[in-house]
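I hope you will forgive my troubling you with a question about protein structure. The matter concerns a single protein, recorded as an amino acid sequence and a row of backbone structure tokens. Please examine both parts with care and let me know of anything in them that strikes you as inconsistent. Here, with my thanks, is the record as I have it:
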Amino acid sequence: MTAEAVGAPKRGPVGKLVDKLGSGVVQVVMILIGLFWLVPTLGLFVASLRDTPTNNAEGWWTVFTKPAQITLENYSSLLASGFTASFWNTVLITVPTTLLVIGIAAMAAYAFAWIDFPGRDILFLVVVGLLIVPIQIALIPIASLYGQVGVFGTIPGVVLFHVAFGLPFAIFLLRNFFVGIPGSLLEAARMDGASEWKIFSTVVFPLGKPAIASLGIFQFLWVWNDLLIALVFANTGSQPMTKALQSQMRQFGTNVDILSSGAFLSLIIPLVLFFAFQRYFVQGMMAGSVK
């Protein structure tokens, strides 16, 4: 075997370019790319601070030369129209859904990873198979069931649907992460007389916090930005912000001031959540990938 065969792999064109430019230049370029991707968000924010005639007549970038265009009347009108209730409906749907998915999936994943019970592998294959089931095929049957039990158009009904379709992926993700925990830790806890619940709560759950945190972020963003389930299962009293914005679009048509201010308000919390916990996205993508 030649030295070339056992040496380091050859650098590709991108790698050679990084070597020539240096890490500092690459970081500057990446920052510029990130700022470029934030331009639509900035444009949305500026549009939410201007009235409709101004938005229709001029581009949003003219605000830097004409700061007098800025006004908070759009947000005042939006909040007066009942958008606040939709915001709290979104919170009441997203937070319980995220907590329930994390709690149920974590316990189920621990059972699939470390508890030997009859039919465990078959049941886990069923859970994995549910990952490919489209949400659309369940809308009509679940809507009919909700009508019979009296939860159609309520927040609990929307929460239950999100939990049911969020669990397969959550269980799959956490189970693949939990099997990577050293078994010697669990055996030592069992030798000390710890119950399965004690092992789960004091050993597995703390060690699985990176995957659990990333799952929580993914689930939160999915439910917060959902429109399909809200259109089907939420009524006027339980509608989240996504459905409220959609109804405003149908009612006002080209009212950019109303739509832009509502869209930016619905964007704030996911944006803050992403920038605060973005490192968990990478950890969540890598969780269990080598098992």
